[in-house]
Amino acid sequence: MEEYHRHCDEVGFNAEEAHNIVKECVDGVLGGEDYNHNNINQWTASIVEQSLTHLVKLGKAYKYIVTCAVVQKSAYGFHTASSCFWDTTSDGTCTVRWENRTMNCGVSLCRPGWSAVVFRLTATSASQVQAILLPQPPEYLELQAHAITPG
Amino acid sequence: MARGLGVLVALPFPLPVGFNAEEAHNIVKECVDGVLGGEDYNHNNINQWTASIVEQSLTHLVKLGKAYKYIVTCAVVQKSAYGFHTASSCFWDTTSDGTCTVRWENRTMNCIVNVFAIAIVL
């Protein structure tokens, strides 16, 4: 039986749309398959390439980073984490987790804003400089950890 | 607060001139060495280890003071006879954005850290 879980954390990002795109790609590549060492290269490459192609076809002004990890199901542990330093008002991420009887697949999609990112003044900035637009360092996105643990 | 357009201020960081993958690689490798060096895979600590790796890597990269956004991902896998494979693909500006991957292993685990750097264009 194939299951998938979703974790999306984004602002102004159509997560539902991205999630459906990625899920369809994973279903299309891994659906009905068992873990096979000979095919795994091709599968992970197909998943990221197809996902990326479909996302770009949406025609939105975004850059995309898609990563995919496939792990053979076993009693052994596998853990991933990610952290981002970007503009939390425009950038976003979405993760699709998929599994079947023999393997787990995790696909993460990061979508940083394209250009002319809007920064916000903060109390810690050089506030003595009075300006309308003062570039500020992007902010940290909270840590996202995904664990696929023996069970 | 001043009103009106066209007020120029000095940028707090230099404009991007291309991603220095070697520099990022060294930073990340040091972080992984510091967290996992000498350790054996331990289910109780793994959460803390992966979190430390991404946070420390990110902190050091940001300290470089360059106009980049960063995305750092880390995967740690216990060594076994079972398969593990990752892939990534990016749609970005190939002249200014970049990536680097650090692969690290010891007797009991494999660790893969990916850094993606997106140039901030003002």
Describe the structure.
- Two copies of one chain form a homodimer.
- The first copy, chain A, is α+β, with helices and mostly antiparallel strands.
- Chain A has helices at 15-30, 40-57, and strands spanning 3-10, 64-72, 78-86, 92-99, 103-111, 139-148.
- In chain A, β4 (92-99) and β5 (103-111) form a beta hairpin.
- In chain A, α1 packs antiparallel against α2 (40-57).
- Chain A is globular.
- Chain A starts with a strand and ends with a strand.
- Chains A and B meet through α2, β2, β3 and β6 of A and α2, β1, β2 and β4 of B.
- β2 of chain A pairs antiparallel with β2 (84-91) of chain B.
- Chain A: This is Dynein light chain Tctex-type 3.
- Chain A: Its main location: nucleus.
- Chain A: One of its GO terms (molecular function) is dynein intermediate chain binding.
- Chain A: Keywords: Cell cycle, Cell division, Centromere, Chromosome, Cytoplasm, Cytoskeleton, Dynein, Kinetochore, Microtubule, Mitosis, Motor protein, Nitration, Nucleus, Transport.
